[in-house]
Amino acid sequence: MWQRYKALIFDMDGTLVDSMPLHLVAWQQTAQEFGFVCDQEWLYARGGVPSRKIAALIAHEQQIALDPEAVARCKTAHYVAMIEQATPFPAMVALVQQAAATLPMAIGTGSLHANAERILAQSGLGLYIHTVVAADDVQGHKPAPDTFLLAAERLGVAAADCLVFEDTEIGRLAALAAGMDCVMVVEGAPDWATLTTGQTS
Prior knowledge:
Blueprint: E1 7-10, H1 20-34, H2 40-45, H3 51-62, H4 68-82, H5 90-99, E2 105-108, H6 113-123, E3 131-133, H7 146-155, E4 162-166, H8 169-177, E5 181-186, E6 189-196
Parallel strand pairs: 1-2, 1-4, 2-3, 4-5
Antiparallel strand pairs: 5-6
Helix pairs in contact: 1-4, 3-4
């Protein structure tokens, strides 16, 4: 299915790597320190959104005073302390290794660049990835298309020729907004029945 594209772009957390549970634990720890309610389902749905923007949403929705930058720093520190526990999904590793022989590949993530690079290095996936676009590389974050458009630009491939792999609706909307096709990753494997065509969105 992916062979008809000219480039592949992967979200990281929850798509390539089973790291979302670590992010949720980090949010739980941060919620205890700052006194906000930690709704894990709500947080998972916002995978791909930078922590400071999530903190601002929490402050708005829960009507409490929070410093988004301080909350983000705290959450990131908790996450980084556990980051070595993040492991890649075997089915996605197999896909990446197979596609690497013929296609350029990029990461388009809402995580910080340093954390994305660390996971790529420790998982071995960095051997196959040509470029990383992270939260600190763009102004407009998912569901805006900026992350994926910059990834395509760096790969030198037209947006319409890219296939995105995502695990959240916010990420899927970002891919479609970029004019790219998107496949959802469910339980660590691509669900080809979810293939959505960006050109008709």
